[in-house]
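A favour, since you know our C-alpha coordinates better than I do. What I am after is a single protein written out in full by you. Could you add the entry underneath, on a fresh line?


***
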Amino acid sequence: MVKHIVMWKWKDEVKQDHPEALVASLQERFKALLGVVPGLKEIEFGANYNGGEYDIALYCAFATKEDQDAYQTNPAHLAVAETVRASTCGRACVDYEIA
Protein backbone atom coordinates (compact mmCIF):
# COMPACT_ATOMS: atom_id res chain seq x y z
CA MET A 1 0.00 0.00 0.00
CA VAL A 2 1.20 3.51 -0.86
CA LYS A 3 0.43 6.58 1.25
CA HIS A 4 0.40 10.10 -0.21
CA ILE A 5 0.28 13.12 2.12
CA VAL A 6 0.26 16.69 0.84
CA MET A 7 0.08 19.97 2.76
CA TRP A 8 -0.46 23.44 1.33
CA LYS A 9 -0.40 27.08 2.45
CA TRP A 10 -3.25 29.36 1.42
CA LYS A 11 -2.45 32.45 -0.60
CA ASP A 12 -2.83 35.54 1.58
CA GLU A 13 -5.95 36.71 -0.26
CA VAL A 14 -7.62 33.31 0.23
CA LYS A 15 -6.75 33.28 3.92
CA GLN A 16 -8.22 36.79 4.33
CA ASP A 17 -11.46 35.69 2.64
CA HIS A 18 -12.10 33.03 5.33
CA PRO A 19 -11.80 29.89 3.17
CA GLU A 20 -14.25 27.66 5.09
CA ALA A 21 -16.58 27.31 2.08
CA LEU A 22 -13.61 26.48 -0.16
CA VAL A 23 -12.47 23.80 2.30
CA ALA A 24 -15.95 22.25 2.33
CA SER A 25 -16.07 22.27 -1.47
CA LEU A 26 -12.63 20.70 -1.77
CA GLN A 27 -13.54 18.04 0.80
CA GLU A 28 -16.52 17.03 -1.32
CA ARG A 29 -14.56 17.11 -4.56
CA PHE A 30 -11.68 15.03 -3.18
CA LYS A 31 -14.09 12.50 -1.61
CA ALA A 32 -15.84 12.20 -4.98
CA LEU A 33 -12.62 10.79 -6.45
CA LEU A 34 -13.08 7.60 -4.43
CA GLY A 35 -14.61 5.04 -6.77
CA VAL A 36 -13.71 7.16 -9.80
CA VAL A 37 -9.91 6.95 -9.72
CA PRO A 38 -8.78 3.32 -10.08
CA GLY A 39 -6.57 2.10 -7.23
CA LEU A 40 -7.50 4.94 -4.86
CA LYS A 41 -8.40 3.19 -1.60
CA GLU A 42 -8.76 6.09 0.88
CA ILE A 43 -8.87 9.87 0.67
CA GLU A 44 -9.25 12.61 3.28
CA PHE A 45 -8.92 16.39 3.04
CA GLY A 46 -9.14 18.99 5.77
CA ALA A 47 -8.07 22.31 7.23
CA ASN A 48 -5.38 22.55 9.88
CA TYR A 49 -6.95 23.89 13.07
CA ASN A 50 -3.73 23.68 15.07
CA GLY A 51 -1.66 26.52 13.59
CA GLY A 52 1.71 25.97 12.00
CA GLU A 53 3.13 26.46 8.55
CA TYR A 54 0.48 24.66 6.48
CA ASP A 55 -3.24 25.40 6.24
CA ILE A 56 -4.76 22.36 4.50
CA ALA A 57 -3.80 18.72 4.03
CA LEU A 58 -4.66 15.73 1.85
CA TYR A 59 -4.18 12.06 2.70
CA CYS A 60 -4.55 9.29 0.11
CA ALA A 61 -3.89 5.56 0.08
CA PHE A 62 -3.31 3.59 -3.10
CA ALA A 63 -2.92 -0.11 -3.77
CA THR A 64 0.34 0.39 -5.72
CA LYS A 65 2.82 3.03 -6.88
CA GLU A 66 1.42 2.58 -10.37
CA ASP A 67 -2.04 3.47 -9.08
CA GLN A 68 -0.61 6.60 -7.49
CA ASP A 69 1.10 7.53 -10.77
CA ALA A 70 -2.20 7.08 -12.63
CA TYR A 71 -3.99 9.28 -10.04
CA GLN A 72 -1.55 12.12 -10.77
CA THR A 73 -2.70 12.29 -14.41
CA ASN A 74 -6.36 11.33 -13.92
CA PRO A 75 -8.61 14.10 -15.33
CA ALA A 76 -10.91 14.05 -12.27
CA HIS A 77 -7.92 14.59 -9.97
CA LEU A 78 -6.44 17.27 -12.23
CA ALA A 79 -9.67 19.27 -12.07
CA VAL A 80 -9.54 19.39 -8.26
CA ALA A 81 -5.78 20.00 -8.27
CA GLU A 82 -6.29 23.06 -10.48
CA THR A 83 -8.49 24.67 -7.82
CA VAL A 84 -5.96 23.86 -5.10
CA ARG A 85 -3.05 25.28 -7.12
CA ALA A 86 -4.99 28.50 -7.80
CA SER A 87 -5.62 28.97 -4.06
CA THR A 88 -2.25 28.02 -2.56
CA CYS A 89 1.32 29.28 -2.57
CA GLY A 90 3.32 26.57 -0.84
CA ARG A 91 3.31 22.77 -0.82
CA ALA A 92 4.99 19.86 0.92
CA CYS A 93 4.49 16.21 -0.01
CA VAL A 94 5.47 12.83 1.43
CA ASP A 95 4.92 9.50 -0.30
CA TYR A 96 5.78 6.17 1.30
CA GLU A 97 5.07 2.51 0.87
CA ILE A 98 3.89 0.06 3.50
CA ALA A 99 4.73 -3.58 2.89
User: Anything to note?
Assistant: The chain has one domain: 2-97. Residues 2-97 form a domain with the Alpha-Beta Plaits fold (CATH 3.30.70.100).
